[in-house]
MazG nucleotide pyrophosphohydrolase
Amino acid sequence: MEIAAFQQLMRDLYLENDKRRGNTATALWLVEEVGELAEAIRRDDRENIREELADCFAWIGALANLYGIDLEEAFKEKYPQSCPTCGRNPCICTD
């Protein structure tokens, strides 16, 4: 699935719910999912890590839709085939 198709799916499925919930509450849901991902990583539970990564990705799509941001376009601008910090591919940053 392409990023645009993923974002459209999230829009079709959840945009009305996300609008009712609002930007701040939707962002807080993302933060909660990131916390669940961190816990799965701490436990080294690969299946749960997989699930939580998908949840985080979905909430990122929800936020992008609420703010009218095209994720694919934003990603390509920020990461134009190279690291935005050192400008290299692969990245040679030390941190």
Notes: The two ends are 31 Å apart (CA to CA). The chain has one domain: 3-78. Residues 23-43 form the longest helix (21 residues). The CA atoms of residues 76 and 84 lie 11 Å apart.
